[in-house]
Write a structure and sequence with these properties.
The protein is 48% helix and 12% strand. It has helices at 10-16, 26-33, 37-46, 62-70, 80-88; strands at 23-25, 52-54, 57-61.
């Protein structure tokens, strides 16, 4: 006897349906980025992970994730001294 439950877990749905979705939840975006859900929400609070707010929901646009990853993650790991050094030499 076989079960008819969905073999795809909730955590892997972001990977399976990732190509055709325009937005992800903050938790799904965190999973795709390889960070914890709590850290993903912290980045949203800091303004480092862009979101679209629809009522109480926060959704991360796919293009924002692609831009963040395409930028080499420089927005996530900035050197605090780099902006001071560059302004001193200007």
């Amino acid at each position: 006897m076989t079960t008819t439950t969905d073999p795809i877990s909730t955590s892997s749905r972001a990977h399976v349906a990732g190509d055709d979705r325009l937005v992800f939840t903050v938790a799904e975006a965190g999973e795709l980025l390889g960070i914890s859900r709590a850290f993903a929400y912290e980045l949203v609070a800091r303004g480092e992970l862009p979101v679209i707010r629809l009522g109480r929901r926060c959704l991360v646009p796919k293009v924002a994730l692609l831009a963040l990853v395409g930028a080499g993650g420089s927005q996530l790991a900035t050197d605090p001294g780099s902006t001071t050094d560059s302004s001193d030499h200007a």
